[in-house]
Design a protein that fits this description.
Elements: H1 11-23, H2 30-42, E1 49-51, H3 54-64, E2 72-76, H4 82-89, E3 93-97, E4 99-101, E5 104-107, H5 109-114, E6 120-126, H6 135-145, E7 148-152, E8 168-172, E9 185-189, H7 192-201, H8 210-214, H9 234-244, H10 247-268, E10 287-290, H11 297-306, H12 322-327, H13 334-342, E11 343-346, H14 354-372
Parallel strand pairs: 2-3, 2-6, 6-7, 7-8
Antiparallel strand pairs: 1-9, 4-5, 8-9, 10-11
């Protein structure tokens, strides 16, 4: 089966894990700190905080920026459910925002402006597929309204850019991401006071970590804020340090495969629409396409699976998921709903070859022809 996503793991990761096990220290320690510093340097930031998931990072970001009960937070619906869940964790209300268009499925600034109220405290922008939203326009939007700006950068690990334009940016290292630690995430912040608050909050609000007490830097601790158990451990950090060394090469490979897909789709499946302009980037996390109108997507996916090609959907709109639909029954996002009804995600990962990309496109072509009969 040609998988939609496949992690690049091998002897380097196995050796790194073995070294942590041999060290006798497997919880949050020196390797976590080394991973934080290396990740920050890669993303042109002064420091970073490692956490156990991107979801945890989003929750900490919102909480550290003072989001709480009575507040509203603008969020895209075309995203993974964690983006909205994190707002709920803080006791705030997510306000779902439509996308710009079928060719650019990023959160719409115009629709966000229309949905602002006096209770709007923050906005979360999501870099869908690894394509960054317009930094200058969103920064100006947030500043003009005195609201916090958070980047959901789960799809944008390794994106070449200046330091984070959001107040906080949160990244994912889940197994299907551009680099992985199995589970895990990283947080960057413009204000180091905010980052320090996030660092303390990730470990129960404690003023000293276990490894700091082990090394005699202090012998006790206090708790000065409400915190959570969102720590990363040295096992995952060791994998992260290894993965980070290959990230640029893997992202280059994804870009090459995306270009190959575009050429193949234009030649073999001209009725299939590819979102984003070819120059949009800078990171290619997934390969989304839009099937022709009226196409039975389920049958296409089944036929492609029979041909040995896995596909998936990014994403079912959050506002149409049962838990959210029951609580927000009147939300209508026409462009998001149209895009989500036609979207299909093709395989894209660094282990793929150009021949496998062609296999996926020809499988799609065959499935579409069968669908027309």
């Amino acid at each position: 089966m040609l998988l939609v996503a496949e992690p690049c793991l091998g002897e380097e990761e196995a050796t790194a894990l073995a070294e942590v096990v041999s060290s006798g220290w497997i919880t949050m320690g020196d390797r976590v700190r080394a991973f934080e510093r290396a990740f920050a340097e890669t993303h042109h930031a002064s420091d970073a905080v490692a956490v156990d998931s991107c979801t945890a990072g989003l929750h900490l970001a919102l909480a550290a920026l003072g989001v709480g009960p009575g507040d509203e937070v603008l969020v895209p619906s075309l995203t993974f459910v964690a983006t909205a869940n994190s707002v709920i964790y803080c006791g705030a209300t997510p306000v779902f925002v439509d996308i710009e268009g079928l060719d650019r499925p990023l959160i719409s600034l115009a629709d966000a402006a229309a949905r602002c109220t006096p209770r709007t405290k923050a906005v979360v922008v999501m870099h869908y597929g690894g394509r960054l939203v317009d930094a200058e326009r969103w920064r100006a939007f947030a500043d003009a309204r005195g609201m916090a700006l958070i980047e959901d950068s789960a799809h944008a690990v390794g994106a070449s850019r200046s330091p984070t334009f959001g107040d906080v940016a949160v990244f994912s290292f889940f197994g299907n991401k551009n680099m992985t630690t199995a589970e895990g995430g990283m947080v960057l912040a413009r204000d180091q006071t905010v980052l320090a608050r996030i660092r303390q909050m990730r470990s129960h609000g404690m003023t000293a970590t276990t490894v700091e007490r082990l090394k005699g830097r202090t012998f006790t601790y206090d708790v000065t804020m409400l915190g959570y158990n969102y720590r990363m451990d040295d096992l995952r950090a060791a994998i992260g340090l290894t993965q980070l060394r290959h990230l640029d090469d893997w992202n280059d490979r994804r870009a090459m495969l995306t270009d190959e897909y575009r050429m193949l789709l234009a030649d073999i499946c001209p009725d299939v629409q590819v979102p984003f302009a070819a120059v949009d980037g800078p990171v290619h996390h997934i390969m989304p396409v839009l099937l022709p109108l009226g196409c039975d997507r389920q049958r296409v996916m089944e036929r492609m699976r029979e041909a040995g090609v896995q596909t998936t959907i990014h994403y079912p709109p959050v506002h149409r998921l049962t838990w959210y639909r029951e609580r927000f029954p009147v939300v209508r996002l026409p462009c998001t709903e149209h895009f989500a009804a036609r979207e299909l995600t093709l395989p894209l990962h660094p282990r793929m070859t150009a021949q496998q990309a062609e296999l996926a496109v020809r499988s799609l072509s065959n499935a579409l022809r069968a669908n027309d009969r």
